[in-house]
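Lab notes, practical 5.
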Amino acid sequence: MAICSPNRLSGTLKTWARTGNPWVWLTAGAVSLSLVMVFGILFLIASNGLRHFRAAAVAQITFAEGAGAPLLGEIVDRESVTAVRAREAGGRVPADATMVERFLIKRGNRDIGGEDFRWINAPDIQTLDYPADAYTVERLEWGNLYGRIKALHEGGTSVPLVELQPRLARVVALRADIDHLERVAIGGTNYALDALHRREKAQRKAGATPAALASLAAEEKALAARYAGFTAELEAKNVAISRDRLRLETIEGETREVPLAKVVRAYAPNQMSLRQQVAHYGASLWEFLSAQPREANTEGGVFPAIFGTVLMVVMMSILVTPLGVITAVYLHEYAKPGAVTSAIRIAVNNLAGVPSVVYGVFGFGFFVYLVGGSVDRAFFADALPSPTFGTPGLLWSSLTLSLLTVPVVIVATEEGLSRIPRAIREGSLALGATKAETLWRMVLPMATPAMITGLILAVARAAGEVAPLMLVGVVKLAPTLPLDGNFPFLHLDRKFMHLGFHIYDVGFQSPNVEAARPLVYSTALLLVLLIMSLNLAAIRLRNRLREKYHAAE
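Output from the prediction step:
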């Protein structure tokens, strides 16, 4: 039997290594492992986030004697723990057990018992069933209420329970009307009154004529009358929405009356058909995407955060692209090699490695205090001491992230300019075009795909940044959107919500960790999908431009 000698085996391995095949396999393995990790993370986020919108079954649990009162709620998690840990947490544990299964129950009814979630050891459970008459009532405040519906009242009159869903639909419509009145009609009138008062203050300071002041007074009177009309309409709708009340009985036997005005939806999940479950899932998902947050951001929707994230990224893109392109054009086309050019390149490369929170501190000190304070003194002196631009807002957040991402755009654009053949520049100049015309009509269009590449990388980084935004404009809850129907429509001075900060706030600042956990996953998945959508749109644009200028590649 022939045995391969160590020298011969070493020579064979060296020969195989020189062919480059090991490095090909190593690269392919690294890429495959990266893809598995990426898709694994996405699957983890999606599986934990998307199940938040389903109509979870309501379980009724009765305990063994001495283990506690009956319980009604959702089983949201289960795990196996050591017997020692189970005994420390309380509850019944068999003497010979080494591992004990336990369930996390969302028992709701926070305004009654104060405990929203509770761990229960499996040995404590005597019976577990899913009664068909158990209802889940999602409320605007205090979370879910679990119980059995006993009656539906209109004033002092009992109403058949079959009218519950139509009356809930009426309440939803009235709630939308009230929200429109408060935010658009009354809010717009208040905004107009504030602007009018500032104009009046400025004109009095400038020595306005009595006729001009009388005109302002008449305008103020008209706005006040409009405000009074909207207020009366709002009061009438508040009376109308508070007409119906729902009476439930909890598992403990306690009766609760809930105004339908405080109810988001009410349903019996244990008797829902597949069609009803799909409809409920779609309605819950749509609420998450389109509604305002509530209950300290642990319930409701994230529409203001979606809107703020997209608007900030769009503004950042508009600001960073010209700045990055102009710098790259100067460095590659005009700057002569020397100490100054080398210093600029070193500075650009170093800026790419500066921690993002440093940009936030710089933006807060330079943009907010220095630039914003100067703008207030020059153009908004009548509003002082209340700052207009001398406070964190959308504009300063976009500018700060522009500085954060501009090195990426500079490097990518300069890389694209270097790939354009010199013959194209020389041919354009030989035909009589100036250097500026050559740059504008030939070079820059061919370098557009590289610019878009830089922009893609900038968007991917900026959309997920949180630390600098906490200093220059993002807030936990913004009362109004930066874009509305009030002149000048886009309010660059307003604070805004952001998906990244929303994840941080819900995940680390929420007083109810278990209730916030599904929203963390859902919002994280939404942020990833949003970044992917923005990047895919930019990639599609880049590919079209690359096909157009294929000769320059």
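Observations recorded by the TA: The longest strand covers residues 71-82. The chain has three domains: 59-147, 153-273, 307-552.
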